[in-house]
Amino acid sequence: MKNSTLPLIMAIVGVLYCTPLLAQDEDPTVALEQLEGEEKIKGYNDLYKEYINSEPEKALEYAKIAFELSQEAEYKKGIASGYNNLGVFHRGQGTLDKALEYYIKSLRISQEIGNREGEATAMNNIGTIYALKNENDQALENFLYSYKIFDSLKLESNMVGSLTNIGNAYSSKGEDYRAIEFFREALIKYESIGQKDKLFDPLTSIGNIHFRRKEYDKAFDFYNRSLDIETENNNVFGQAYAYSNIGTVYLHLKNYNRALENKQKALNLAETVGAASILQEVNKSLSEIHYQFGNMQKAYEHRVAYDELQHLLNSQQTNRKLAQLEVAYEFEKKEEELEKLRAESALNALRAENSRIIILVGVMGAIIVMGAFFIVYTLRRHKEVEVAQ
C-alpha cells in the first residue's frame, strides 16, 4: 500500500469568527429588536459572525437583516459589511469569482468612507481568493497591504491573522524560509497580546514545513508544542489534530507501533467530538498501518470507514453549498429589489420634478401671454384716446 499520508494542513485565515455563546433555545434577536440604528445593525452582524461556522443558513439570515437595515438607513459601513458577508458565503461554496466581486464592492465602499479597518479586511479577504486560485503573488500583495493597515491601526489580533496568511502565501510559493519567519513572528505576537490559545495554528504550520523538508525532529517539536497548547486549552479537536500529525511523522519513519499509538489516540478523541475530517484522514492512516502489520481485516475495516467518511463529507459539503446558495440567492434578490426600488424612487422623483417644471413653464407662459395682451390692450386704448382728442 502506497504511503501517501500527509499531515493535516491548516487553512488560510480569512475572516475570523467566534463560536455561539448563547443557549441553544434562546432567541438572540429578542434583545436586538429593542435597539435602533447602527447598534441594531452591528448586533445582527455580530450574530452572523457567531453562527457562520455552526449554522450558516441562520447566519446569512442575520446578515440579510443587517444588510437591509443598512440599505434603508443608507449606512455605508453596514452595506460594506453586507457585501463582505456575501463574499464569505460564495467563497465557502466555491464560487470564487462571485466572492471576489463582493469583496471588491466592500473594499470600494470602505475606501470611499475612509474606513481603514474595513479596507484592510476586504484586502485580506481578496487575498484569500487569490490564494485559493493559486495566484500566490497577487495573494501575497493583498496580505501585505492589509497587514500594513492593521499595523498602522494597532489592531494586533488582525495583524497576527495577516502574518499567518503571509506565511501561508510564501509557503505556497515554495519559499519556506520566509514563511517560517512570518509564522514565528505570529507566535511572538500571539504571546505578547496574551492569546496563547491561538498558538496552535502557527505552531502546526511551522511543523508542516519541517515535515515537508523531512526534518522530522523539528516537526515532532512543533507538533508536540501544538499538542501541549490544545491540552492546556482543553480543545479536544485540536488534540486529535496534533496526535494525528505526530502519528503521520512516525508513519513516514516506518515506526508503525508509535504511529499506531498516536493515530489511535487521534481516532478516539475525534470520535468524541464527531470530527469527520480528522476521522477520515486517521482511518486512512490506520488502514495503512494495519496493512503493514499484516492485519488485513482491520486494514479493510479502516479503509471502508475512510471511504464512508469521504462520501459523507462530500454529501455534507454539497448539501451545505446548496443551502448556502439558496439563502445567498435570496440575499442577492433582496439586494436587487432594493436597487430597483431606489431606481424607481429616483425616476419618480425625476418625473415629479419634470412635472413641476412643466407646470412652472406653463404658468410663466400664461403670465407672459397675459402680460403681452395687457400691454397691447393698453397701447390700443391709449391710441384710441389720442384719436378721440
Can you describe this structure?
The N and C termini lie far apart (132 Å). The protein is elongated and about 125 Å long. It is 81% helix and 0% strand. The chain contains 15 helices and no strands. It has helices at residues 29-32, 37-51, 56-73, 76-92, 96-113, 116-132, 136-152, 156-172, 176-192, 200-212, 216-232, 236-252, 256-273, 276-293, 296-388. It is mainly α. Among the domains are: 7-187, Alpha Horseshoe (Serine Threonine Protein Phosphatase 5, Tetratricopeptide repeat); 355-389.
In short, what is this structure?
With 389 residues, the chain is mostly helical. The chain has helices spanning 29-32, 37-51, 56-73, 76-92, 96-113, 116-132, 136-152, 156-172, 176-192, 200-212, 216-232, 236-252, 256-273, 276-293, 296-388. Helix 3 (56-73) runs parallel beside helix 15 (296-388), helix 9 (176-192) runs antiparallel to helix 10 and helix 13 (256-273) runs antiparallel to helix 14 (276-293).
Helix and strand sequence: HHHHHHHHHHHHHHH
Q: Quick one: CATH superfamily of the domain at 7-187?
A: Tetratricopeptide repeat domain
What top-tier CATH class of the domain at 7-187 fits best?
A: Mainly Alpha
Number of helices: 15
Strand proportion:
under 5%
Cα(first) to Cα(last) distance is: 132 Å
What overall form do the CA principal axes indicate?
elongated
| Main sheet properties | none
What structural category arises from helix and sheet content? mainly alpha
CATH architecture of the domain at 7-187: Alpha Horseshoe
Kindly report the CATH topology of the domain at 7-187. Serine Threonine Protein Phosphatase 5, Tetratricopeptide repeat
